[in-house]
Amino acid sequence: MSSIVVREKKPQDKAWITTLMLESWGSEQVVVQTRIFHPEQLPGFLAIMNDERIGLLTYQLDPPNCEIITLNSLQPGMGVGRSLMDSLQKTASSNGCTVLRLFTTNNNMDALRFYQKYGFHLEKLIKDGVAADRKIKPEIPLKADNGIPICDYLELTMRINL
Is the pTM of this model over 0.90? Predict the structure, then answer.
């Protein structure tokens, strides 16, 4: 069985990242709490198996915090997300960060399950927080594929103990 290799993203990954953002988020940009991000310009890690890109994590360092902006696993259940997160923890710690943080929406049950298993805790509920972002990025749907209205943000945090 092949193993997952994680490496820092490179300039030649830009087109793939742009396509992944369009397919996953409906736009090249990601809007979180009225902040606009372009994942192809952020630092990040790619997960690769058999020379195929199977995951992406982008982040922003602001010591003592490291904020995860995007996390995409194209092979759920294989350890892609965990491998990417492990690499981020090491990088964040070596850059003076002691806390990982992220925002996800109330409908994202898979993400909530993953992050809590990984060690994140719910820090804050931002009720109706998506409404302001939808004004900036109208592509944000009103309902998720699972039928849950997309309206609130959940802030999750985890202390880094390396």
Answer: yes
